[in-house]
Amino acid sequence: MERKQFGLGDVVQMKKPHPCGTNAWKVIRMGMDVRIKCTGCDHSVMIGRLEFERKLKKILIRAEEEPQA
């Protein structure tokens, strides 16, 4: 199975909505764990990368790639 490609600053949709009613999360930290922040109430959650990839439904907005000078 192909791994899902996501990056820092992407807005993603998870399989289950947050209790505040929003289903859009922004990726704010990446590593072995991924920290995501709810776009509705600004609550942040840190989960393991494999669990995050399993619960990720799709990428809604890709972060703009900044050119390296």
TrEMBL record:
InterPro entries: DUF951 (IPR009296)
Pfam families linked to this entry: DUF951 (PF06107)
Domain of life of the native organism: Bacteria
Annotated PANTHER family: DUF951 DOMAIN-CONTAINING PROTEIN (PTHR38455:SF1), HYPOTHETICAL CYTOSOLIC PROTEIN (PTHR38455)
The protein's name in its UniProt record: DUF951 domain-containing protein
Species annotation: Brevibacillus formosus
